[in-house]
Amino acid sequence: MIDLGVVAGEASGDLLGAHFVTALRQTRPSLSAAGIAGPRLVESGVTAVYASDRLAVNGYVEVLRHLPELLWIRARMTRYFLRQRPRVFVGIDAPDFNFTLEAHLKAAGIPTVHFVSPSIWAWRPERIHRIRHAVSHMLVVFPFEEAIYRDAGIPVSYVGHPLADVIPLDPDSAAARAALGLHGGPILALLPGSRLSEVKRHARLMLDAARLVHQRHGDAQFVLPAANGAAASIVRAALHGTSLPVRILDGQSHTALAACDVALVASGTATLETALFKKPMVITYRVPALTARMMRKKALLPWIGLPNILARDWIVPERVQEAATAENLAADALAWLDDAPRRAAVIERFRAMHESLRCNAGARIAEAVVPYLETRA
């Protein structure tokens, strides 16, 4: 038997989960935890039955390709948790995987907490019915989400966003540049995504945009944090035969964001991280054409980037699908570099956003989970 079951679906879920497990261990150092975990959760003391990157698949087409493996892993994990009977199960993101698993566990009398609401406010609102069936308690990271679940009769707690606690309100850009050995002209960070499928779709696009920026600013420098060795290999292949001054970093995305003047960012958690670092950005995303058509039919909001969604405004440009061209990304990046008042204005909006999300989330999540640890399922 274990105290805590956990499933984190990818790098961002692994990072988010590690914060609250670490907070739980401050009062429960002997906490036993196991499930699907990445390196950060493992470091916090969670036993990994499977690695989180096994679930790092996005989009309808990609999921279909990996569906047999995903179904096999979920069946194995369902049996594992029903056998181990954790006091509480916490599913971190990965809603399509976790909600089915959570429904089985909840039906068997195991409390289920889900951390990070799926974006039912952006598309597929009908998922609220599935969530009600699967989740004992929803933990949300954005203030406007709380009312959605309360109105649907689902126990909910707003906990803030763990990244807002970790990222300083005033990042030290000079120290980050010194750490990376960067000096002189404008610095652009290129963040093509953490999944290999995202890196394949976005790395060359961003590098082509960087070349166009470099034509205007010959002293510009570029940093590209690679999530892992496979991602770095894709980037190196795209750079082969060019002299573009790009530093490929081994992770270090936060250092890259602290150091940069402007960022090109694939839509996802990285856009929020960029906003928390108070950096002007251009958001982009590409998916297979079939996936794009299906998602557009279900979209409820005009934005895909978290900073725009939180602001309910077009405060940073988004270049998606057909508009995701090197020319557009370069033009948007150059527009940021050429307009100091606009940069200053968006930095102030990002600071207010940061303050609204800074709630000591790890402690709040631990506080919500603790009651379930007091009784054996």
- pLDDT average, as an integer? 91
Shape: globular
- What is the percent of helical residues? 40-55%
Straight-line distance between termini? 10 Å
Derived from helix and strand composition plus strand pairing, the structural class reads alpha/beta
How is the secondary structure organized here?
Elements: E1 4-8, H1 11-27, E2 33-37, H2 39-43, E3 46-51, H3 60-84, E4 88-92, H4 95-107, E5 112-115, H5 127-134, E6 137-140, H6 145-151, E7 156-158, H7 162-166, H8 173-180, E8 187-191, H9 196-216, E9 221-226, H10 229-239, E10 246-250, H11 253-259, E11 262-266, H12 269-276, E12 281-285, H13 289-298, H14 306-311, E13 318-320, H15 326-337, H16 340-357, H17 361-373
Parallel strand pairs: 1-2, 1-4, 2-3, 4-5, 5-6, 6-7, 8-9, 8-11, 9-10, 11-12, 12-13
Give descriptors for this structure.
377 residues, alpha/beta, seven-stranded parallel beta sheet, six-stranded parallel beta sheet, 17 helices, 13 strands, globular
Could you describe the 3D structure shown?
- This protein is an alpha/beta fold and 377 residues long.
- 51% of the residues lie in helices and 16% in strands.
- Strand 5 (112-115), helix 5 and strand 6 form a beta-alpha-beta unit.
- Helix 8 packs across helix 11 and helix 9 runs parallel beside helix 10.
Nutshell version of this structure?
The protein is an alpha/beta fold and 377 residues long. Helix content is 51%, strand content 16%.
